[in-house]
Amino acid sequence: MYKVLLATLTTLLLVGCSDQSWRTTDVADIMPPLDFALVDENGDSVQAEEYLGKPTLVYFGYTYCPDVCPITLARLGDAIRKLDDETRDEIQVLFISVDPARDTPEVLKRYTDAFGPEFVGLSGDKAAIDAVTNRYRVAYEYGEENENGDYLVTHSSAVFAFDREGQAQFLVRDSHPVNDVEADIKRLVAQG
């Protein structure tokens, strides 16, 4: 009886150790795989399939954003810079603009270059942006233009993480500590 109990306990402990959850928010069972048809920061039409093979972080925002976008991307950049070179080389961050009228490929390239070589800007026409934002349940809305023609865009601030095959894994919110984000990125890369 004692041996059976010990064997059962050992099995439960081993199973528990391998069933580690993400430190951020697990979305593997509720979000669809990576899929889009957009334009990259070089002006080329691209499909999601072109980004498979590397773990991918996806953020929706716009370059004229006065606060949330630069803060979120800087936090991601901080987490990525804490990684060793080999792990860092495996990560890509796709910044998808929801403001294609102002975020031309040239503007996107200048913006993403400020955060690091892992960051790539994408956009497209309104229909393409709506298709990808609807797919991931990302809301955005344009504010009223001021006398200079400037406007704000209200948008979601979550970062979606996909594995090498484009399967959704976890979601990063502003409230998640950078150390948790770093740990989940390392684990995502280590999944092979």
Automatic annotation (TrEMBL):
InterPro entries linked to this entry: SCO1/SenC, Thioredoxin-like_sf, Thioredoxin_domain
PROSITE patterns: PROKAR_LIPOPROTEIN, THIOREDOXIN_2
Any Pfam family the entry gives: SCO1-SenC
Keyword check for rRNA-binding: no
Ranges of residues in domain Thioredoxin: 25-190
Gene3D superfamilies: Glutaredoxin
Family: Belongs to the SCO1/2 family.
Identification of the protein by name: SCO family protein
Origin species: Halomonas colorata
Lineage: Bacteria, Pseudomonadati, Pseudomonadota, Gammaproteobacteria, Oceanospirillales
